[in-house]
Amino acid sequence: MNGWRWDKQPGPMEIGVTHTQDSLDDTEPAQARQRGVDILSSLGQEYQNHHLMGFGTLNPEPRPGEFEWDSLDRRMQLTEETGGKAMLTLCCSPDWMKGAPRDSGATRWDRLEKAPLPEHFADFANLAKEAVQRYPQVDRVLVWNELKGFYNQAENRWDYEGYTNFYNQVYQAVKSVRPDVQVGGPYVVMSSVPVDSGDASDIRGPWGALDQRPLDVLDYWLKNNVGADFIVVDGSTTNRGQQDAISPVDVGAEKFSVIDRWIQERTKLPIWWAEFYANVPADAQAGFASPASAVSTIAALQAMARSGTQGSLLWGPEGSNSLEYSSLWTPATDETGGQPTPLTEAWRWLVPRLREGTVELGRATDGSSLGGFRAADGSVLLVNFSATAVPVSGQEDIPGWAIVPVNSSS
To answer: Does the model's pTM come out above 0.90?
Structure first.
């Protein structure tokens, strides 16, 4: 392809999913669920992440020493049924670890995102030990989720000291019984803000400036953790509180590369994006079945792959009307659900190829909004990163928000 710049993928990148509240549960209509299962099975051996508590799973220890694993068992069975690899996010915590009476057995879901009290960090670490022993198929765990409950209101910053103390106890507990399990943190949101914000760092781009506070979390955690196998972050393509992305959408997606490079200057730990949110421009429709959302998701993956991300997880593979981001199948809670989305075929193409680490990552240099992925066999996934159709000599125009697989003989 003339008029293109191609960069070799610097290393293998795993892409997978995090199951959330509704995700092919046995309460869904059977035919819709089966269609979703077929899609998930077709994606190959990708990571499927589950939460210890919440986001589709119930309280695993409603009273001290009283374990209830049924809901997480079912999610792990889904991963086995569809040929995936199991990952576990060690979040959230039972109510009695957050100050509720020890023998109440009650779960207040409105308090899900509260952190355990420091005097119960060891109890949560013991729960983590139980979990990784129960699920030997889990080979990678994320410690907590977005520092939920770990915020220092008085100083308007993350409580990175408290989180790191918590992380260290969980890390040591997991390694004491499963030294083979890869453990990572701190799973902080890499938010960005307007450049004139008082929280702005000097790391800037067309999308704004990185918030200094999550950078401080990473710096402290890197210096004070007792051990880690990988580093975990999440983020979006736009500033905090802003939904409208820049067009072409790969401009905002470059923020993921900027963050990767900032981290790589400080550590050799592999980088995993536990969540990533790819917004669309103001004139585009967002949602699980939106072509613009699918393309924005692919733009984010390309930015991560180009900068050496080792792994990235799509939050919510099952579409949801309450989340305006791309998914891999439509809501299987509906009788007609479980259908492919504009992202499905491209995701299926990318999973094995990015994992091999041999993809070339392309961008047109002629001023158009085309990008692409080129595999070792010569096949190409062509993507239009904007709503504007791109003329191609001797062929039909490539429509806005198009994703076009091209085989090597084309």
So the answer is: yes
